[in-house]
Amino acid sequence: MKYRNNKHFSYLIRLMCLAVLILALPSCEEGEDSYVGNWVNLGDFEGVTRSDAVSFVIQDKAYIATGYQGDDDERLNDLWEYDPEKDTWTQKADFPGVARNAAVAFGTSSCGYVGTGYDGEDELSDFWEYNPQTDSWRQIDDFPGTPRYAAIAFSIDDKGYVGTGYDENFLKDFWEYDPATEQWTQRSSVGGSKRRDAVAFVIDGLGYVCTGTNNGSYESDFWTYEPATDTWTELRHIENRTDDSFDDEYTSIVGSGGVVFVADEKAYLVTQSNYVWEYDPDYDLWEQRTDFEGSNRAEFVAFTLDNTGYVGLGRNGSSYYDDVWRFDPADYYEEFD
Predict the structure, then answer these.
(1) For residue 233, what is the domain's CATH number?
(2) What is the rounded distance in angstroms from the CA atom of residue 52 to the CA atom of residue 67?
(3) 271 in a domain, yes or no?
(4) Which domain range does residue 315 map to?
(5) What DSSP element (H or E) covers 84?
(6) Distance of CA 255 to the CA centre of its chain
(7) For the segment 195-242, what is each residue's pLDDT rounded down to a tens digit?
(8) Residue 4 domain flag
(9) Is the pTM of this model over 0.85?
(10) How far apart are CA 111 and CA 158, in angstroms?
């Protein structure tokens, strides 16, 4: 068949290509968003429901400890190990410090560390080391800053970092713990505002801190930490505050009490309202991903194993949770799989 002119032929070719492209796109059922990333419900954590627990990772296993069980107005000191290969939870030696919530934790290549927090009457500063090889705890030197809760913690190159939080005042001081020397050293304070209930994460040897509250306001500044030079560098704010288009959709990143995990050198922030935001450090940009599929919640936990993010526990008002979810950032959304 011959066409009378090339313009007609070119138009038909474009229509055919458009049809192929539409057919290749993933379909979306009514009510389903089109963001990338898929949540899978792994079932229940085997300990009691709780909020305000801590989590840390040692090599290929994750650990959850402490927390608050609101039904019985009880603070907890149990420790649980998660094995992703077997998808099993195993109870380990109880945390020997006073039961607490709103503590911090970090893991190194060989041990986990838990400290600070609130016992129902006082802010705390004691710190403890967990050895998974012997399933045992030992107390290390107290955190040298003021006793506090709702702080942040992370680890870089087998050193732990703890800072910010609340001791009846908002805080921004920042401390390094070196397990090799068993010494705490004060480092440069976190850039920008004081804060509590912030999130912190590590990508490619740099620490990042954002969100949280200070004097009744959500903080929108965003900072990265370089351990080698002990310096903080400000990044773009996490709200729409410029005339450029990159932050036009930044409507739900700010807040407090969210959680974060890292996969494929990107961070994933899960807010109390179930929004999920992906941070790409190469471009200093945030992009929304598929909403967290569990119930809205506060005071939950997150961790990363084998480049996969896990989120669970927490509370919504007087309801306390023990469900755990896995997130694959590369998959398309599939409802309740």
Answers:
(1) 2.120.10.80
(2) 5
(3) yes
(4) 36-332
(5) none
(6) 13
(7) 999 999 999 999 999 999 999 999 999 999 999 999 999 999 999 999
(8) no
(9) yes
(10) 9
